[in-house]
């Protein structure tokens, strides 16, 4: 690891207490000449909630793509749910970065959520079908989407579609949850609800959570650790260890002020006005 990398490499799982939900060792990802990050060591313990922060283009989505088996590392290793990262694993729940579904998409919300269930596990018999139906209904209820579950998803609002994506990711009871800006286009009440549902999945089922976000405040009370990526450098630690003026100034290589105002974090100085960690009045 180079001195530039400021990672705390202490494993999140104590020896003998089970394997991490996610494990990266000395991981490097580069596109051509551009290295997004290198020497990344990260263990996410079962039940742990890790927020992934960083400016545009710092490689947050690319990290999730590596964990989904969609992108190869240039060096190092990745394990997820105890095995190598591979496409289509049914142990991973994934909430992709939001793109509005086309108005012509006619699949119903209920069926979209059902796609999150592994057909083989429940079988095709009557009891399997009943169990599937029950699980989908529970997931729809959890995100308050029952009311519009029979509508073609293309006709739903951005926030309504997003709640269905959350239900789809949670319905299969995953052991790892990869969330890419899951709170985008949700109103404040649903931001809270969805954040809590994701944290509950971590606590109840022992799912390891990686939660990419530009705004830490809605999830600050739920977060165990933060991975902060800036321009190839990174820092991993508790919110207090990472979200302070000294650490962020070091990461951004410029003066950053971090203040706590009424339980919220206010960050000033990075990326001018459009800094991704927003001010006190936002979110
Ligand atoms: N397949 C690819 N080939 C080449 N460059 C890529 C590829 N995928 C992503 N990149 C580049 O890598 C950088 C990191 O992209 P990534 O989407 O991981 O960033 P991010 O941190 O999620 O950004 P944002 O906050 O804007 O969503 C970007 O500059 C992007 O253009």
Automatic annotation (TrEMBL):
<keyword id="KW-0067">ATP-binding</keyword>
<dbReference type="GO" id="GO:0005524">
    <property type="term" value="F:ATP binding"/>
</dbReference>
<dbReference type="Pfam" id="PF00005">
    <property type="entry name" value="ABC_tran"/>
</dbReference>
<comment type="similarity">
    <text>Belongs to the ABC transporter superfamily.</text>
</comment>
<keyword id="KW-0813">Transport</keyword>
<dbReference type="InterPro" id="IPR027417">
    <property type="entry name" value="P-loop_NTPase"/>
</dbReference>
<keyword id="KW-0547">Nucleotide-binding</keyword>
<dbReference type="InterPro" id="IPR003439">
    <property type="entry name" value="ABC_transporter-like_ATP-bd"/>
</dbReference>
<dbReference type="InterPro" id="IPR050153">
    <property type="entry name" value="Metal_Ion_Import_ABC"/>
</dbReference>
<dbReference type="InterPro" id="IPR003593">
    <property type="entry name" value="AAA+_ATPase"/>
</dbReference>
<feature type="domain" description="ABC transporter">
    <location>
        <begin position="22"/>
        <end position="256"/>
    </location>
</feature>
<protein>
    <submittedName>
        <fullName>ATP-binding cassette domain-containing protein</fullName>
    </submittedName>
</protein>
<dbReference type="InterPro" id="IPR017871">
    <property type="entry name" value="ABC_transporter-like_CS"/>
</dbReference>
<dbReference type="GO" id="GO:0016887">
    <property type="term" value="F:ATP hydrolysis activity"/>
</dbReference>
């Amino acid at each position: 690891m180079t001195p530039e990398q400021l990672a705390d490499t202490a494993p999140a799982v104590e020896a003998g207490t089970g394997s991490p939900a996610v494990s990266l060792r000395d991981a490097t990802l580069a596109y051509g000449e551009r290295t997004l990050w290198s020497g990344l060591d990260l263990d996410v313990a079962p039940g742990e909630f890790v927020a992934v922060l960083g400016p545009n283009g710092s490689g947050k989505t690319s990290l999730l793509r590596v964990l989904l088996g969609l992108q190869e590392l240039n060096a190092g290793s990745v394990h997820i749910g105890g095995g190598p990262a591979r496409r289509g694993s049914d142990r991973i729940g994934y909430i992709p970065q939001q793109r509005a579904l086309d108005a012509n998409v006619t699949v119903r919300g209920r069926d979209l959520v059902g796609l999150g269930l592994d057909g083989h596990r429940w079988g095709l018999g009557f009891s399997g079908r009943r169990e599937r139906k029950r699980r989908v209904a529970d997931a729809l209820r959890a995100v308050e989407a029952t009311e519009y579950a029979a509508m073609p998803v293309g006709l739903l609002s951005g926030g309504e579609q997003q709640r269905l994506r959350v239900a789809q990711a949670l319905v299969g009871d995953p052991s790892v949850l990869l969330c890419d800006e899951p709170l985008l286009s949700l109103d404040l009440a649903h931001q809270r609800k969805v954040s809590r549902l994701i944290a509950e999945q971590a606590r109840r089922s022992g799912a390891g959570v990686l939660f990419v976000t530009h705004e830490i405040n809605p999830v600050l009370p739920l977060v165990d650790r933060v991975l902060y990526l800036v321009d190839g450098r990174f820092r991993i630690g508790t919110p207090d260890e990472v979200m302070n003026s000294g650490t962020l100034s070091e990461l951004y290589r410029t003066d950053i002020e971090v203040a706590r105002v009424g339980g919220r974090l206010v960050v000033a100085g990075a990326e001018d006005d459009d800094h991704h960690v927003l001010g006190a009045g936002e979110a």
